Every structure is written in C-alpha cells, then in structure tokens.
Amino acid sequence: MDRQRIEAYVDAAAAALDLPLDPAHRPGVLAYFAVAAQLAESVLAAPLGVADDAAPVFVPIGPGDVPASSGVSTR
Fold first, then answer.
1. Residues 4-28: pLDDT tens digits?
2. Which alpha helices (DSSP H) does the chain contain, by range?
3. CA atoms of 17 and 23, how far apart (whole Å)
4. Which of 7, 37, 52, 67 has its CA 20 to 30 A from that of 59?
5. Integer Cα distance of 11 and 26 in angstroms
6. What does the alpha-carbon distance between residue 36 and residue 47 come to, in Å, rounded to a whole number?
7. What is the pTM for the complete model shown?
8. pLDDT at 53
9. Running DSSP on this structure, what letter comes out for residue 62?
10. Do 34 and 3 contact (CB within 8 A), yes or no?
11. Which of 25, 23, 24, 44 has its CA nearest to residue 33?
12. Closest CA to 3 of 35, 25, 42
C-alpha cells in the first residue's frame, strides 16, 4: 500500500470513528499503518494449499511439540 492510500485510509477511518487525530501524532500513526500494511502483504502472500483451513479452535503448542521435520527452529 503506498503512502497516499495509507493517508487516505487513516483520514477516512478517523473521520468514520469521529476520532480526532492530533497533527503531532499523524506521522507516527501513518508510520504504524505502513508497517501494518507491509505485514498484511506478507501474510496474504503466503501460499495456501487445499488442506489449509482456519482452525475452529486455536490450541497453542510448546516448542517441544513442533515436529522435527517442520523446519521450524525450536531454539
């Protein structure tokens, strides 16, 4: 998302929520949304297979529960 779209989004969201945005805070808010947009793009770019489906219930696992063949480092 480019800076112009981020600015438009922040302005529209603040107006929709009737949320005053102090001009001194605007650069920080825009910077945060730029980071959030980059993170969202990387998540959306992850390939999903046919078997990948949202879990109906999130069950956290510990580092010792990760299978060795997953390629995930548990250190």
1. 999 999 999 999 999 999 999 999 9
2. 3-16, 26-44
3. 17
4. 37
5. 10
6. 19
7. 0.61
8. 79
9. -
10. yes
11. 25
12. 35
